[in-house]
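In keeping with the milestone schedule agreed at the kick-off meeting, the structural modelling team has produced records for the first pair of proteins. Each record is given below as a sequence line and a structure-token line. The laboratory manager (R.T.) confirmed that both were archived under the project's standard naming scheme.
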Amino acid sequence: MNDQKITANNGLHIDQRTLLAYISILSLWLVTRPYRGIWHDSRLYTLSALKKLYPHNFERDLFFLYGSQDNFTVFSQLHAWVIEYTGIDQSALLLTLTGQALWLTGAIFLACKLLYTPWNWLGLGLIIVMNDYYGYYIFSYGESFLTPRLFAEGLTMIGLYLWLKRYYLFSVIPIAISMAFHPLMTAAAMLILYFTYLLIHRTKTLLITTALITLIGYFVVIDIPPFNRILLRMSDTWYTLVDQRSPHVFLHNWETASFNRMIISFSILVCASRLAIEPLRSLCIGAALATVAGMAFAYFGGEILHNVLVIQIQPWRVLWLTTLLSALAAALLVSHYSNVKNWIPIFGYLSAWLLRDSTGGFIALLSLMYCVYEIKLLPYYRIILLLFFGIFSIATLSQLAVFIFVPLADLTEPSSIIFYLKIPMIAFIVSLATFSLTFYWQRSSRYQTSILALSLFGLALSVIAWNRTISASSNISISNIDLLRNMIKADDVVYWVNNPEDTWFALLRSSYYSRTQLAGILFNEETALEGQRRSQLLGELGAPDTLLSSKDLFPGNNTKTFNGSSLHFPNLILACKDQNLDWIISNEILKNGNVASSFSNNGWFVYRCSEHRE
């Protein structure tokens, strides 16, 4: 075929049309990943950075009490250096911008290596717009908040680009740095590269594999971590706690929609491998094999054998990179099938993606079947396939209408004429429109001035809409914070009900318990057991943040929400009997409690546990 059955090294030549495309891509990135400050996992990584600066203050925090995943990354030290000079909120903003710039650079390099212009632009657009959760609705690539995952992903893509350019020695550098930032994310690229290299150099790869297995076996014998965990089995108690508190780790907790997303990416990679030339062909096959291997390891090693190391490395995390590569592969499918005027696979995969929360996986497999057996099936089953896709067209178009027109309808509501809702939606529409126009008119010089003006307008709106910061700083007055810091010693442990963020970022003190601190219990059994003990102690007293989810608060009614103000401790003495707890801060006047201090303007009451012990 002499059509767009392609991969290519476009270089990074910048002309006017390319500049327009990159402006549109940057606009789409900014508007689809608004910055909301320190939230999600960025809270724990900011906490880890603060521990580098104030080790005495946080050594008794539950998250660090028995070790944490901070031992596996150099990111916390880097974050600590920036905090020391700029402050908590400013460092998060600065490092997020840096990480996102690195991420976009890696994505651009990779797309330009694998696809010709203009399909590399389409691939980048699909990466950005079609970005979705992988796994259990917690993680997605190119996150909008600060974690080492952002840096590791960007460095990994740069490493892949250098490897595809055959700069093998230089590719080791970004991949090694990525490994130092986040080993689990980097392992995804290494697994894909392993299978890709296996396809090209089978004998050499098998010899290297044998040598590595021998070396790992030696490390197991001499008890070198983390290899000494290969033969360890997670205890039943530990496994149950991880299953309850970190359900995303185990495949049996995933919903159908999570598997649909994986199936869609897998089928796109397999279909594209039949159309692409090297190096995209081998990379698609390697990514598809890595998907199967990662899921198989996760199931048999984690679900069946309860192996500690397999559970901790979470092999399913390979999905971040396979999902990203499938977006580039989708651009290849569009280029090929649009060129031969065959819209069935394009419409099939579009339907699969729009219906990814319901029947998308099945539609993707059907589209893959059509792609693989296109020549054989076309004479006999074309009408059947067209009829089948026609049945799904109504659902697809309805989903598309919801995706596009519901946000537009919001703009007509008086209540939505506010910055937070209106500007981001307009920015998204303008950015998507300019991207589409740039892609459509890429071979023509007409309208470029108008498109440039529109793209700059979209970029300006996207920049304005990007920063929607939720500050890590407390809403409690500085004078009250200073009073608390003087009252509570640096090494004291505080239980601030439903509010560990103020304990960490305002008081700079250790937190006794929160659900956030249990995020890493799969890495340490002692943390899991101690967290469970504290949860049971506080749970007996009605502490709201000891409950696993809203389902525990309102059985049989998942529509209700809970603001943490209706439950309170019936007996303060019961909580304070734990010698590890020094202070309780609650928004309730606790029964039998002597208030050491209160902030009536904020509704917080402070209790010294030493005054309430029997």
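The second protein of the pair:
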Amino acid sequence: MTGKTLKIILAFLLFASSLVAQNSEKVKTAQSLFQMLETYHYNPPKRNCALSNHIFESLVKTLDPYGLFFTGETISSFKPYRDSLCTPNSSLISEFINIVTDKYRNQLSLADSIVDRCFGSPINLTETDSLILEPEDASKRPKNNLELEVRWKKWIKQGMLRSLMYSGNDSALINSPIIPDSLYAKGSLLAKKSMIREKRWINQLMNYSGGIENFVINSYFNSITSCYDPHSNYFSDNEKEKFESSLSKENYAFGFELGSNLNEEVIISRVLPGSPLWYSKKLDKGDVILKIKIPEQEAIDLTFAGIEEIDNIFRTLNGDGVEMTIRKLNGSISKVELTKGKFDTKENQTLGFILKGEKPVGYIWFSAFYTEFGRYGNVGCSIDFLKEMVKLKESGANGLIIDLRNNPGGSEGEAMENAANFDAKGPFAIRKNKEGGQNILEKTNAIQWYDGPVVVLVNGSSASASELLAAILQDYGRAVIIGTNTFGKASEQLVFPVGQRMRPRNFTANPPPEIKDFAKVTTGRLYRVSGKSYQKVGVLPDIVLPDVLDNFISRESALPFALKNDSVGSSVKFSALTKLPLDTMALLSKSRIMKSEKFRQVSNLNNSMKTLMSNKNKVTLQLGQYKNDADKRKQL
């Protein structure tokens, strides 16, 4: 044996032992995660075979949501472990993760070769066929690799049909009665684009940041938390940073968003207003990202990289500069140097203005209940909301419309601060913990800034803190709630650094650098001052208005493992305003809606969409029928 060969073997053994050590540490994290969930989750399920099977099924779906990698035979090979994924036996869990990782890697490699074979032969889009997009259970997945290849052929067909109809192809050809097969034939531009897209996706999974082993075990962690309730999550440190940024008014980033063009290349889809990049004018919408050069590292070729992969690269750069090679819209190639900076993101903002009609009415919209966790003072949406409200009041507004439609929520504290603007100190709601203990949510030393009439607009995407504010104003008779049933989330979460003496930690508090794992855990439930809950049912509007998006919205009641609706005995004393004639108002509104041509169109549109959406998991693969369905969707 030569010295060179010996060095290679030793290097491999060191690498292998390093992976084993990393996996061993990660498996310990799983045990800490279970312990944390059992200790702090509001309603933790028993660690038994049933929970283990739920975790197993969630993991398989996470790794392969479309049934394109795992076959029935593959899943059967995991059978010895599926009842034991809650076990404190770390060696067994480690063995399971290693086997899943190896199988997943092999099946991804197989899928890559299947894609090559599929595009190596003619693709027929005229024969009658159909595809179930997401297999509902293991019995709907391909039984073996032969059936897997058949499914891939169908998957590729639906991808090409989708690109053909929705990706801005020649409208004259697409809208003609007969679509020439040259558009999708073997070797056509569409076929090449589709092949690049599928291979890029597989490549992204095979080259996951941190390794495929990391992807599998992180998916396992999230499969664990998802089986406790829909809002408990595992976060790596990078994912924690993303979540923190989403709830903050200030953003620390490069200042752009990513998208893809018709050639499936990753592009700059938007430069964020107010960011350093926006002022520098170094990048433009539509610029194609070709390479990234991190200091003291080789340039990264992004030919087959996906949006998520590139996004992860940028997010992991903590203030470091980066050189990016881009192709401008005119075809020229240039290099630009970028550095992260802090700026007020326009995603989290509050806007107010006067609606001029018979009487001037104020209107306020805000994107979310954003805040700065760990900071106190003039931060958060409640301060911005108050500023807008005072300006509108001074401008002579005779009433106020608060638009919470599509507001996903955020900080519970910000919701109560906003409620205090209308009803001072409360009480506002009841919090209940897992031991059954209750405490009243209220504000002290609050000032009522507005005592005029208020309308709150809501829909099925008004969630969490949005629902809390709507419920408070409704219970006190301070507002008329108009729209459709809200989302239905009446629970609260705390974030814990996993394995660190079980101490909850605010997002912006600086944990020790060795902490890389975090868990957002549902620790309590919220109830209205009456003792009733909007969990899983939502806040019901006083006046119902048809919503054009209602059939597209998935509410809490549709999510697996959602907490049930219940109520608590309430001894809370509160004084609501004189009850408004809501029944009369609702009847008058219904009469106006029935006479309104616009609302009649919305109702007809909803009925048509309901029909189209009734079987959205199944698509036709026949070109003519797919075109008909696509035309209907475009018209709607």
